[in-house]
Design goal:
Two copies of one chain form a homodimer. Chain A is of the alpha/beta class. The first copy, chain A, has two domains: 130 residues, Aspartate Aminotransferase, domain 1; 220 residues, Aspartate Aminotransferase, domain 2, CATH 3.40.640. Chain A is 41% helix and 13% strand. The first copy, chain A, has 13 helices and twelve strands. In chain A, strands 2-8-7-6-5-3-4 form a seven-stranded mixed beta sheet, with helices on both faces. Chain A is globular, with a radius of gyration of 21 Å. Chains A and B meet through α1, α2, α3, α5 and α9 of A and α1, α2, α3, α5 and α9 of B.
Chain lengths: 380, 380
């Protein structure tokens, strides 16, 4: 028994049963372990293009006001989001990123043994919360690197799921379904089942990827964030949009004074600067194209992406891709990879600046060669 | 049944049972309701003296880096806190304010019917979390405006409490116990009972108010914050210090990427600037003295305070104090008051600038006169 799995005797049985593993190790921890900083930070799908200059200015300006708690209702931001999405303010709840909102949502709906459906290899932080509240996770496989709405629905029907989690576009593969496909999925949800539609990357996807938001429809809750397209991962601002009855329930459990003041100001400014978001989309598209090229240059296939990252198929199994990933890290390029086969044949590289892409272009062939050498050594 | 108490059918029985009331209404919501901003913001025990200039500079500087997630381990801040408190880094967990840490702690230890002990009228957000996880709250009364360690211990013994919550110095009364008294309380804890020692205001209390931190002692967990003395309420940074087995359990449930990047940088800088904290303590002391004087000028008694607020006894019952509070609000002075009798005979006024104090000095006699007039009218 390691230190971390020792239990304080006062833990609840559920808390005592939880694993001490965490979904992600941060790049900073990896840098501390290897003793040198990464040259390219392309593993967490952050936006290297940053928030808009006006957003940075607004946050700098707000720093002096940090002695005041942020508005616990995130009123101004919710009002602006309501206008932006043409919904009512009471159909939006703001939280500490989608991670924080998933925590609250799972807490509200999942208890011991509650069945929940997701794709094997989809967002592990959702699973972390489901496990954390005692739920039971049922998975279906990806189909050709796409999350599979039909299989998710069928599994939900089979196990009587209360929640289905789907990200569109998908993380970690970058694939996406059309609005029509998602809407059909919503229409075919079993009675009593809520679709948790994680649209963290939707601002970066082709226009029209998101089905129209209909807050009268209590079968779906939409999760959005300022962490990706808006370039504010470190500010921890996400929001959920849905039926007001479900949305209002968040107020029973959320950390009311949990939203930072600088973050609220920043998000409001970021939302107003849609021109910047469009500019980011163009830069992301350019970087995606470059990542496709880099894959081709190395004789590999890239999965076409609707996000700010590209999964590159390393052409062999998960062990091989993990070796490539490790080698990339040693060469100064922080990336991640899918956790589950066969998607774990890929490494997932975030879009970046031209300089970032040049580093990838230089490091990938070396990393592939190192991984191949490791395979050859094992064969001997 | 109002809108807010309608239930989504997918809520867990516990979530469905939770009240929709929240511990505190923010000053911004009150300003929106009355249509004018407050002239003095003295209701949330924020530090009007702000964070240190170096902290503001560091946060302004960090705004451009907000595209990156904050380090999920808050490594640098934890290291600095470990040095500051002479403990090991794995005996500290950083979270989104004490509110966020109380959420995690209660989640880890409280389930349906778990008995918990606190003082009637103590911090309502702790109770919010206990109720939120299905625990059962048992209360004891204050004794002469002090939380009563002996009564808390006796009640914990009687009900088999898993947690006792105590804030020292106390909020909302501002009174405090000596380190020796708190240490005696720790020594007399029933077996299996954890003391949640909320020391949010301890930096503002007389030196030596906090018992020595002994992380080998698993009977107590200490809660600290950058929201009060350090003047960073809007940055949402608190930390808990305790035995490593309990502290490590937070990693099973906390929102790992929940700590903002700008906030982490700010807190680290604030911690380094202890001279600023000392300066704030002096300004707080000056303001406390002024609040005592204002009480005297109005023929009222102030409760001696070890915090950055003063509870002023309005000399009558809770209804009277509530009328004073409302009148103060209408005169532009945001304050709060204790929720429970007989402490609710007081209004609680945060320390402030000389200008803030001048506003209080001017508004309080008017508010008292209005409240007295209301009483006189009712008598007729």
């Amino acid at each position: 028994m390691t230190k971390d799995t020792e239990n304080d005797p006062r833990l609840t049985p559920l808390a005592a049963s939880l694993p001490s593993t965490v979904p992600f190790i941060g790049p900073e921890a990896q840098e501390r372990a290897k003793g040198t900083p990464f040259k390219a930070r392309l593993g967490a799908n952050e936006s290297v293009f940053g928030p808009s200059p006006s957003t940075i200015r607004a946050m700098r300006q707000a720093a002096k006001d940090v002695w005041m708690y942020g508005d616990p209702e995130s009123h101004d931001l919710r009002m602006a989001l309501a206008v932006h999405h043409v919904v009512n303010p009471d159909e939006i709840v703001v939280g500490a990123g989608i991670d924080g909102l998933l925590d609250s949502l799972v807490r509200l709906t999942v208890t011991d043994g509650t069945p929940v459906v997701t794709s094997a290899g989809a967002y592990p932080t959702f699973n972390y919360h489901v496990t954390g509240y005692g739920g039971t996770i049922h998975t279906v496989n990806y189909t050709a690197d796409f999350e599979d709405p039909d299989h998710l629905i069928a599994k939900a029907r089979e196990v009587g799921a209360k929640l289905i989690y789907l990200s569109n576009p998908d993380n970690p593969m970058g694939t996406y379904h059309t609005a029509a496909t998602i809407q059909r999925m919503i229409e075919s949800l079993p009675k009593g089942c809520l679709l948790v539609l994680d649209e963290a990357y939707v601002e970066l996807a082709p226009k029209g990827t998101a089905p129209a938001i209909n807050t009268k429809d209590s079968r779906v809750i939409r999760m959005r964030t300022f962490s990706k397209g808006y370039g504010m991962a470190g500010a921890r601002i996400g929001y959920a949009v849905g039926h007001k009855t479900l949305i209002s329930a968040f107020n029973r459990v959320r950390n009311h004074f949990g939203m930072g003041r600088i973050s609220q100001v920043g998000a409001l400014t970021a939302l107003e600067d849609q021109a910047w978001l469009e500019d980011v989309c163009e830069q992301v598209e350019e970087s995606r194209q470059r990542l496709y090229e880099i894959a081709t240059e190395n004789g590999l296939e890239a999965i076409p992406s609707a996000t700010n990252f590209v999964a590159i198929d390393c052409g062999k199994d998960g062990a091989f891709a993990r070796t490539v990933l490790t080698a990339l890290g040693e060469l100064g390029v922080f990336v991640r990879m899918p956790f589950v086969a066969p998607q774990d044949r890929c490494v997932r590289i975030s879009c970046g600046t031209k300089k970032d892409m040049a580093l990838v272009a230089k490091a990938l062939p070396k990393a592939l060669a190192q991984a191949q050498a490791a395979v050859d050594t094992q064969k001997v």
